[in-house]
Amino acid sequence: MIESIIKASINRRWLVMAGVLLLIGAGVWNYQKLPIDAVPDITNVQVQINTEAPGFSPLESEQRITYPVETALAGIPKLSYTRSLSRYGLSQVTVVFEEGTDLYFARNLINERLGVIKGLLPEGLEPEMGPVATGLGEIFMYTVEAEDGYLQEDGTSIDSTELREIQDWIIKPQLSLVPGVTEVNSIGGYNKQYHVNPSPEKMLSYEISFEDISDALESNNANVGAGYIETNGQQILIRSPGQLKTISDIEDVVVKNIDHAPIKIKDIAEVGIGKELRTGAATQGGEETVLGTAMMLVGENSRAVAQAVAQKIDEIKSTLPEGVVIDSVYDRTTLVDKAIWTVQKNLTEGALLVIVILFLLLGNFRAALITAAVIPLAMLATISGMVEAGVSANLMSLGALDFGLIVDGAVIIIENSIRRLSEAQKEKGLLPLKERLEVVFSATNEVIRPSLFGVIIITVVYIPLFSLTGVEGKMFHPMASTVVMALLSALVLSFTFIPAAIAIFMNGKVSEKESFIIRGAKSIYQPLLKAAIKLRWLVLVGALALVSFAGWLATTLGSEFIPELNEGDIAMHAMRIPGTGLEQAIQMQKVLEERILEFPQVAKVFAKIGTPEVATDPMPPNVADNFIMLNPRDQWPDPTLTQSELVEQIEAAVRELPGNNYEFTQPIQMRFNELISGVRADLGIKVFGDDLDQLLESSNEILEVIEQIDGVADGRVEQVTGLPMLSVIPDRVSLSRYGINVADVQHVVQTAIGGQGAGTIYEGDRRFEIMVRLDESLRRDLSRLSELPVPLNDGSYVPLSEVAELIQAPAPNQISRENGKRRVVVTANVRDRDLGSFVDEAKIKIASDVKLPAGYWLDYGGTFEQLESASQRLSIVVPITLIIIFGLLIMAFSSFKDALIIFTGVPLALTGGVISLWLRGMPFSISAGVGFIALSGVAVLNGLVMLSFIKDLWEKTGNLYHSVIKGAMTRLRPVLMTALVASLGFVPMALNTGTGAEVQRPLATVVIGGIISSTLLTLFILPILYEWVSKDKKENGEKS
Amino acid sequence: MKSILFKLPIIIVLLSLSLITHASGDHDEHDGDHEEQQMVTIDDHIAEKSMIETAIASSGIINEQLKVYGKTVNDPSQVSHIRARFPGTVVNVNVQIGDTVKVGDTLAFVESNESLKKYPIKALMPGVVVARHANPGEMALDQVLFTVANFEKIWVELQVFPGQLNQINSDQQVLISGSDKTVTSKIEHIIPSQDERPYSVARVLISNQSRDWTTGLLVSGQVSINTTEADLVVPSKAIQIIENESVVFVKTGNTYTALVVETGRTDGKFTEILSGLHLGDVYVSENSYLIKADLEKSGASHDH
Predict the structure, then answer these.
(1) H or E segment and range at residue A236
(2) Cα angle vertex A1034, ends A1028, A1036, to 5°?
(3) In sequence order, what are the residues at sequence separation of 6 or more whose Cβ sits closer than 8 angstroms to the Cβ of residue A495?
(4) Separation CA A33–CA A479 (nearest Å)
């Protein structure tokens, strides 16, 4: 079949060229549609359901909101699991669906279920689904600030309430319209509210209750339409405007009539613009600010959307009030551009190197160009394939592309064609067209089988990557599929485009100068090979020793599972003890940010504290996400400082500041962690049950047991408690004495401290809430709370302490649930011990030493699970892959022994990879693993090409020794070429230090080192082995 | 030789496995060794930036207060209801509502039915005419013609609830405030409520020379229930709760140590320290929360 394809390609060569043009067109067109991002999206299919519940404590929000929502979701199709978080003022249920579920389908299902339970939730609370975005969604952040020293006309500076108003009503509506933006989230400043702060004394003296005030406000603040009347043929609309517009309007609302004297709001209360009870704040460079985040719709092109947002921001700037500026603090474009630049640089430099090598070794510029043409063609075909397969272009998916590897097949074919053509020309002079085509065909056909098998084998070795699941799978599947696509398209090109192009362009005299490199190599190679065959035992033992040494060396290398993509910016969680107030946290941020800004490498630092408007990341006020944006590296005092060293320096500096605990990560990585949010320790023991105290007690018992086991580290129980809380517990007996209900007391406390909404003020589109609550000075004073007067039905009052008990005690900080049940997690890491045996021992000890009450159960999870399943899968898939490769080799040679001999190339290749890793001081990582995988493929390809030629020669001549020597000599050039292009193609990657290089560097290092060793050793060991093994066979054959 | 060949797959599997199983390397480490020591070290310049301030433990005054509410009422002894002594016809009236009268001022003349003689009706105490039910020609029978009230002194009746009763005594200083005015006085006496209400009434006499106060006004009273000099007093914000115990942070050099203290009386602003702290100790008076936060920070985490 291949033969007829090659034949057809040569005969219909112009058709093939037309096809190539089509391929180019399709590739360019698809490139426009290719989603480009810096890193692969590892978010699972999840929907967040946020319910804001102002004033609800964790216990209440769990009982009243989280539980009904979770219950409603039970039995939803394709559900993987649910988890939930109940905090002050917020219930968040995260619904995770099975991989591959359509996100919009999932959201529809949830919407339907939420519709059913609306009636069950407390009045006024609306569960809302989070934005349709993934971990890559936060593509643009900006702060809204007042210019330094700018004063408004009335002499005041612009305060954070006004800035927030500008963000909410000028910037956000415009940004939301940018295509690809699904949500604009705000944090910081205060939502503007109109506050009515009544004085308790005046309320008592006029016998006015909080309810009277809010009733009065609500029933005096509406516009009504009253239809129309027709007069004299004219239709006149009727309307009665009665909305409150200004503070003085509110002040003039009449609350009560005492002896015909109207009591107005202003008689009993102060009215003014007030601050909401906010759940989050933002800071930049130590100052409070308003921070906006544009979130990208899932599946959009982050670079394009971020650019569109940046452009829109520029337009918006002109519409802002005087003295207000927008500062873009985070723009994904920067990172994506850097990543693209890294990839581009690597690919172009690699391609150039490949061309140079080809030219040097082939000695024919046209041939080199034809081979090099495979690179862009394969690239364009791969892009089309990526768009079709929905793979986005990013550092991971493009990271493993090596053009040297891609053109290997083509190199072998071209090399053979050129050799054959020039040989034919030497004999017969310039060939007529027909003969020339004939030579091209037979030359191609001669090597197509080994190169086909070789490339297929390289492709097959990527299969184990597809068996990875979860986060690893999401990171490496795109990489594997891109490489496979590139290899396959290059493969197809190599037996269609290459012969066609040779047929067209290699007319005229084919100058094939044995370049001096090859001549030199051959003159060295021949005596060495002969010597090696003589000293075969020495060489073989040496090789064996080398392999064993590398095997030992491999165990001394460290390891990291998932490579960390350097995003060029730093994210830092600053954590304080639970219960830390927002104002206190802002104070602490100020000191922290000023310290960080002292680093000359730092351009900007900004932070989100607590929960933003849309609770995409519900943090309590004691946690702040700091974003540290760095200056370009060339502006650093020491540009060679690595980012991890800088992080260490920053960490050392901020550790000195009191009261903060830190965790360093990177912006996108942080977002992924927040969304995926599994147990990140080796072992996580989840205790499920009902009673929080019991859960905590059992967890602590479990922790004690684990701490006794050898190899334990960082054991701890999830922090669930420690939120300071003041409980106002109504005294029922006392209440009955005064003739009021529990609800009356609660209402007074609620309104006085938390405030009560009493309608809306409209200013054009803008709408602001009217709140009735006590003045700041009164509600902040905890010691005076017990004196709060509770009005009685007859107009007199009773102090709060008389009818309720005030108890201050720590309470649950947050309540976590999983799959509809409360849970507390005990986590531990394992050091210097095999994880599996540790987990087994822990299970046994816990089962015997910890007694759980009825209705409580345990679940073991953590990284160990993923490791276990990954190793299990790989321990099945890797051997199967090896068997497949082996099968392919046997197919290629119809000989078990030959296949085995070729296989020896693999450990030799791995040897070089391990040694080069060790030389560069790099740990094992999956990236390096991918390098090893590619390496095995290249090694096999090398062996295949060499051995098939020797075998053919032997069959033709019958002289084994000469066939081995001559075959090896003839194949020296293609072997050297494939090896050189494959390894030099990776050199830019191995040396790169730009963004994203950390993924590619180990891979490239392994491949380069491995190819050097495998080439050297293939050139010697393989002929030796073949000669030795075959001689045995020959002798055996002769004997029998 | 064969043995190598057979080893190959095994080596590759091992390599791949070691990739996976070694991968448990990087975990967040945290330093949880503070908990027992209860002390932290903070450089002075950082403490200054963090606005940690210190003060020297000294004696002070604790002014315990309690807020109660009540109403202003007239002094019954300062209201005079004036009637005609003999029934008759009102001949003329000299005063209007709101007029101030002195003792002996003639308010009106009444012509007696019996003697048909005019006799004066006089004010018997100084005050203000607050009611007038007499006009010329009207019959003055036994109704009240004039009410003269003296507002120079009025009473405040503060409601003292059972839970507060043991703290309130007569002679305690009280700051009465209502509708933007304040006046200081003292509790005269405490009487049970008359209409069987569950509270007692603390009565306070306030002077009203300037007529600022009216009756029926709801006022609040800030009662100084206990003003004492204490040997050792710290601002209440210097005290933090750690593991259910009150602590004060004492500074020596750059080190801040948590001292468990026994607290005494407090007035919200200042708290008396009974034991644990010594006179002359340098303690953290501002931003003590930061030190507590630093002590407990190893537990601070962000669980998603």
Answers:
(1) strand A234-240
(2) 105
(3) A2, A5, A6, A9, A413, A444, A448, A452
(4) 19
Q: Does A874 touch chain B (CB under 8 A)?
A: yes
- Dist CA A392 CA A33 (whole Å): 10
Per residue in B37-85, pLDDT tens? 578 888 888 888 888 888 898 888 888 888 888 888 888 888 888 888 8
Q: How many CB atoms lie within 10 A of CB A227?
A: 7
Which parts of chain B have pLDDT scores under 50?
1-36
Interface contact flag, A205 B178, Cβ < 8 Å: yes
Q: What is the predicted pLDDT for the residue at A307?
A: 92
pLDDT digits (tens, 9 = 90+) for A472-499: 788 788 888 888 898 889 888 888 888 8
Nearest to B19 among A559, A799, A863 (CB): A559
CA distance B210 to chain A (A): 22
Place of tokens 């540790």: A838
> CA A22, CA A496: separation in Å to the nearest integer?
14
Tell me the C-alpha distance between B223 and A231, whole Å.
70
- Rounded CA-CA distance A150/B19 in Å is 59
**DSSP notation for A928-977:** HHHHHHHHHHHHHHHHHHHHHHHHHHHHHH--HHHHHHHHHHHHHHHHHH
In order, the DSSP letters of B44-75 are HHHHHHTT-EEEE-EEEEEEEEEEEEEEEE--
Q: Would an 8 Å CB–CB cutoff place A860 in contact with chain B?
A: no
Residue A5 has phi, psi (to 5 degrees) of -65, -45
CB A540 within 8 A of CB A1021: yes
State how far the Cα of A26 lies from the Cα of A8, in Å rounded to an integer: 23
Q: Where are the alpha helices (DSSP H) in A53-131?
A: 58-61, 67-73, 103-117
Q: Cα(A206)–Cα(A191) distance, rounded to whole angstroms?
A: 32
What's the Cα-to-Cα distance from A355 to each of A134, A358, A985, A990, B31, rounded to whole Å?
41, 5, 10, 19, 55
Q: What is the pTM of this model?
A: 0.81
- Distances in whole angstroms, Cα of residue A615 to Cα of each of A183, A306, A706, B302: 12, 22, 35, 15
Q: What pLDDT digit, counting tens, does each position of A836-880 carry?
A: 788 888 889 998 888 889 989 998 877 777 767 777 777 787 778
Please name which of A341, A316, A342, A338 lies closest in space to residue A327, comparing C-alpha atoms.
A316
| Distance set, CA A342 to CA A230, A746, A818, A992, A1003 (Å) | 73, 62, 42, 8, 15
**B52 contacts on A by Cβ (under 8 Å):** 658
Of the candidates A55, A167, A211, A193, the one whose C-alpha atom is nearest the C-alpha of residue A760 is A193
Rounded CA Rg of chain A: 37
From the list A575, A674, A719, which residue is nearest B304 (CB)?
A: A674
- Identify whether the C-beta of residue A854 lies closer than 8 Å to the C-beta of residue A689: no
- What's the alpha-carbon Rg for chain B, to the nearest Å? 38
Phi, psi for B193 (deg, rounded to 5): -65, 145
Residue type, B109: F
The first and second tokens of residue B199, run together, are 């509270």
Residues A941 and A922: their CA atoms lie apart, in Å, by: 27
- A789 contacts chain B (CB < 8 A): yes
Which residues, in sequence order, are CB contacts of A872 under 8 Å at separation 6+? Answer: none
Number of C-beta neighbours around residue B32 at 10 A: 12
CA distance A675 to chain B (A): 8
Q: What pLDDT, on the 0 to 100 scale, is given for residue A1037?
A: 44
Q: Of the candidates A625, A602, A621, which has an alpha carbon nearest to the alpha carbon of residue A611?
A: A621
Q: Which string of DSSP letters, residue by residue, matches A411-445?
A: HHHHHHHHHHHHHHHHHHSSPPHHHHHHHHHHHHH
Structure tokens given for A270? 């102060």
CB B158 within 8 A of CB B69: yes
Selection from A220, A332, A190, A171 nearest residue A671 by Cα: A332
